[in-house]
C-alpha cells in the first residue's frame, strides 16, 4: 500500500465532469470513466450520446453499469488520502508539487484534527473547495491563466471558460448537489439530520435499499449500491412529482368533464322522458280512437255481409220453392193419370210426365257462417301479447340504454302498486288558515275573499295559506290523490307535526315541509334545499302523493299520465300529516279548489 499511496494522485480518480473523486464510477464503451450520475445527466436530453473526452458518438445510448473494481480502488484511495492529492495540497498552501504519499496524508489529517477550526473557517474551506481561487485582477486573462484559475478544471470546462461560453448547468449539478463533510458531519448545514450510528450528516440516498444514509454508512454497508446525494434524488423525485401532479390534474379535469356530460345527459334524458310521455299519451289516445273506428268499421262490414248472405239465401229459397211447386204439380198429374180409365190417353201422356223436369243441382249449394274475422283476431291477439311481454320486460329490467345495472337502479313504486295503500284523507278544520273555505265533507278547500272569525288555536296557521289533513302517518305506507286541474298555483305534500304554524315560515325539509309546488300555471318546483325546478311538458290534472314512512320517502305522481314526478328522501323523526295549499286567487285566475278524490282501483287494474 505504500507503493500504491506513493504514486497515485487524486487526478487519476477524478471525474472530468464534476471535478470530484469518482462516486459510483462507470466506464463508457470508449474506455473513459465518469461518475454514474454525471454521465447520465450529461446524456439526458441528447438524441446522440457522445463521450465528453474523446467525442466518440454512440447511436444508441450505452447501458452503463458501475465499475466495481474502480469503485473499490477509489474508496481505498479516498480512505487513505481523504480524497485529496497534489492539487489539493497546492490549494492548501504547500505549493511544492510533490506527490502525496501515505505518510503525508496521515500527517496532514493528524495536523487538521488537532488544529482548532471555527465554523466560519469550515464554511470558507467548503466554498473554496467548490469555487477555487479567483484570478487576480492584475493577471492577464490568457488561456493558461484562465485554465489555472479554476483548480482541477476539466478540458470541457476549460474550453468553455476560455471561449467565454458558460459551461452547461448539467456539468456542475453533481458538484452543487454533493456536500462536503467535516469530521463531525456536514459543514454547511445547521439542521441536517444526523446518522444515529455514526453521528454524521445524512446527505446520501441509496437507491438500492431506498434509504437515506451518511458517508460512513455508504462505505461500510452500501459499497456496491447505486447511491446519489439526497439533493439529486429529490430533484429527480420532484420532477416525477410534477409529472404525477399533472397526470392527476388531467384525470381530475377528465372526470369533471365527464360529470358535466353525465349531468347534461340526465337533463336531456328528463326532457326526452317528458316528450316521450306526451308522445305515448297521444299515441295511445290515437290507438284507442283507431281501435274504436276499426271496431265500428268491422261491425258495419259484418252487418253488410249478413245482409248480403240473407238476400242470397232468400233468392235460393225462392228458386227451390218454385221447383218444389213444379214437382208437386207433376205429382198431382201423375196421380190423376193413374186413376184415369182412358188407357190411350195415359199411354200417350205418361212418357212426357215421366221425364224429370229441368232443375238445378243443389247438392253443393250452402250458406257459410264464417265471416273471415278469425285472422284479424289472431293477429291482434298476437300483437297485444307481444306488446304486454315487452312492456313487462321493460318494467322489470329497465331500458336497454341505461348505464346502470337493473339491480342498482332505485326503482320507484308503480302507480298500480302504490294505489293498494290508498287511504281516506280528510281535511282538519282546526289547522286551516282563516281565509280558507272547506266543504262539509272535508274533501275540498279553496281560498276565500275574507277572513272568517275562527278561534286562534295553536294548531291553526295564521300566515301560511294552508291546511293539514286529519290522518296521522307514523308508520307504514299511505297514498291519496288530489284534483288540481284548472288551478295556476298550489302546494301539495306532507308536513311534520311540530312545524311552526304562527308567523312567516320558510317551507323547507329542514323545517318539516316536503311538497311539490305549481306557480303561474307552468312553473313546477320541489321545495328541497336549495329549491329545484321541475320540467314537465305534460301538465297533470290529478296528483298522487305516496308516503313510505320507514324509508323516509315522499313521492309524487302524475295520475293521468301514470308517471313518477319526484321523490324526497329523508328521515322522519316524528309523525307527518297531509299538506294542502290552494294559494291565493290571483285576481280570480286561481279560484278553483283542491279536491281530494277517491282512488279508482278498477281504472288502474284495467290499464
What distinguishing features does this structure have?
single chain; 607 residues; alpha+beta; seven-stranded antiparallel β-sheet; six-stranded antiparallel β-sheet; 15 helices; 22 strands; 41% helix; elongated; disordered N terminus
Question: What does this entry look like structurally?
Answer:
This protein is an alpha+beta fold and 607 residues long. It is built from 15 helices and 22 strands. The protein has a 7-stranded antiparallel beta sheet with strand order 10-11-22-13-18-19-20, with no helix packed on it. A 6-stranded antiparallel beta sheet has the order 12-21-14-15-16-17, with no helix packed on it. It has a 3-stranded antiparallel beta sheet with strand order 8-7-9. Strand 7 and strand 8 form a beta hairpin. Helix 2 packs antiparallel against helix 9 (170-177) and helix 11 runs antiparallel to helix 12 (343-354). The longest helix has 110 residues, at 230-339. Residues 1-6, 82-190 and 404-410 have low confidence and may be disordered.
Quick take:
The protein is α+β, with helices and mostly antiparallel strands.
Amino acid at each position: 500500500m505504500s507503493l500504491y499511496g506513493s504514486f497515485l494522485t487524486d487526478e487519476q480518480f477524478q471525474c472530468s465532469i464534476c471535478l470530484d473523486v469518482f462516486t459510483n464510477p462507470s466506464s463508457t464503451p470508449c474506455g473513459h470513466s465518469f461518475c454514474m450520475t454525471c454521465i447520465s445527466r450529461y446524456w439526458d436530453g441528447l438524441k446522440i450520446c457522445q463521450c465528453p473526452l474523446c467525442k466518440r458518438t454512440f447511436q444508441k445510448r450505452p447501458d452503463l453499469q458501475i465499475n466495481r473494481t474502480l469503485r473499490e480502488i477509489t474508496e481505498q484511495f479516498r480512505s487513505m488520502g481523504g480524497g485529496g492529492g497534489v492539487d489539493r495540497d497546492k490549494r492548501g498552501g504547500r505549493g511544492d508539487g510533490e506527490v502525496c504519499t501515505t505518510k503525508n496524508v496521515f500527517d496532514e489529517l493528524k495536523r487538521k484534527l488537532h488544529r482548532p477550526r471555527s465554523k466560519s473557517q469550515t464554511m470558507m474551506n467548503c466554498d473554496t473547495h467548490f469555487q477555487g481561487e479567483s484570478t487576480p485582477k492584475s493577471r492577464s486573462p490568457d488561456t493558461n491563466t484562465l485554465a489555472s484559475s479554476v483548480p482541477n478544471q476539466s478540458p470541457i470546462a476549460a474550453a468553455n471558460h476560455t471561449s467565454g461560453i458558460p459551461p452547461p448547468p448539467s456539468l456542475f449539478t453533481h458538484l452543487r448537489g454533493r456536500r462536503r463533510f467535516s469530521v463531525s458531519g456536514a459543514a454547511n448545514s445547521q439542521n441536517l439530520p444526523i446518522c444515529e450510528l455514526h453521528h454524521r450528516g445524512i446527505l446520501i440516498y441509496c437507491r438500492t435499499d431506498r434509504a437515506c444514509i451518511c458517508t460512513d454508512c455508504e462505505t461500510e454497508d452500501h459499497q456496491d449500491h447505486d447511491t446519489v446525494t439526497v439533493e439529486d434524488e429529490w430533484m429527480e423525485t420532484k420532477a416525477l412529482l410534477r409529472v404525477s401532479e399533472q397526470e392527476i390534474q388531467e384525470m381530475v379535469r377528465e372526470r369533471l368533464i365527464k360529470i358535466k356530460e353525465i349531468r347534461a345527459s340526465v337533463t336531456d334524458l328528463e326532457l326526452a322522458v317528458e316528450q316521450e310521455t306526451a308522445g305515448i299519451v297521444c299515441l295511445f289516445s290515437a290507438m284507442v280512437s283507431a281501435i274504436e273506428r276499426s271496431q265500428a268499421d268491422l261491425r258495419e262490414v259484418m252487418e253488410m255481409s249478413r245482409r248480403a248472405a240473407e238476400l242470397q239465401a232468400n233468392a235460393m229459397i225462392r228458386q227451390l220453392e218454385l221447383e218444389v211447386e213444379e214437382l208437386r204439380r207433376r205429382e198431382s198429374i201423375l196421380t190423376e193419370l193413374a186413376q184415369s180409365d182412358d188407357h190411350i190417353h195415359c199411354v200417350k201422356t205418361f212418357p212426357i210426365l215421366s221425364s224429370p223436369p229441368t232443375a238445378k243441382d243443389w247438392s253443393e249449394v250452402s250458406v257459410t257462417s264464417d265471416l273471415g274475422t278469425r285472422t284479424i283476431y289472431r293477429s291482434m291477439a298476437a300483437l297485444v301479447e307481444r306488446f304486454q311481454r315487452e312492456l313487462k320486460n321493460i318494467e322489470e329490467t329497465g331500458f336497454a340504454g341505461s348505464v346502470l345495472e337493473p339491480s342498482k337502479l332505485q326503482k320507484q313504486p308503480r302507480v298500480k302498486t302504490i294505489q293498494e295503500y290508498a287511504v281516506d284523507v280528510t281535511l282538519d278544520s282546526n289547522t286551516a288558515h282563516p281565509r280558507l273555505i272547506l266543504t262539509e265533507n272535508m274533501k275540498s278547500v279553496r281560498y276565500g275573499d275574507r277572513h272568517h272569525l275562527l278561534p286562534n288555536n295553536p294548531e291553526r296557521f295564521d300566515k301560511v295559506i294552508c291546511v293539514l289533513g286529519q290522518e296521522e302517518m307514523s308508520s307504514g305506507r299511505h297514498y291519496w290523490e288530489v284534483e288540481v286541474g284548472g288551478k295556476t298555483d298550489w302546494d301539495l305534500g306532507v308536513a311534520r307535526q311540530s312545524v311552526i304554524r304562527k308567523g312567516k315560515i320558510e317551507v323547507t325539509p329542514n323545517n318539516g315541509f316536503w311538497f311539490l309546488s305549481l306557480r303561474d300555471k307552468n312553473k313546477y318546483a320541489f321545495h328541497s334545499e336549495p329549491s329545484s325546478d321541475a320540467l314537465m311538458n305534460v301538465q297533470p290534472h290529478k296528483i298522487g302523493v305516496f308516503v313510505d314512512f320507514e324509508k323516509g320517502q315522499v313521492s309524487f305522481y302524475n295520475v293521468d299520465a301514470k308517471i313518477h314526478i319526484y321523490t324526497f328522501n329523508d328521515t322522519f323523526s316524528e309523525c307527518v300529516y297531509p299538506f294542502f295549499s290552494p294559494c291565493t286567487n290571483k285576481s280570480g285566475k286561481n279560484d278553483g279548489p283542491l279536491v281530494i278524490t277517491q282512488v279508482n282501483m278498477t281504472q288502474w287494474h284495467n290499464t
